[in-house]
Design a protein that fits this description.
single chain; 47 residues; mainly alpha
Length: 47
Amino acid sequence: DRCHSAVELEDRDVVSQLEARAKALGFQPQAQTLEVHGLCAKCAVVE
């Protein structure tokens, strides 16, 4: 969060689990975005 660094990760297993859970709740997902905030390796060392 401090340096505003960002990376994009794709994990088919995570996407499949999100879709399955959403469908189990009666929701029809068309797209999904999962954001994780924290510190990059450099910023974590400074902490």
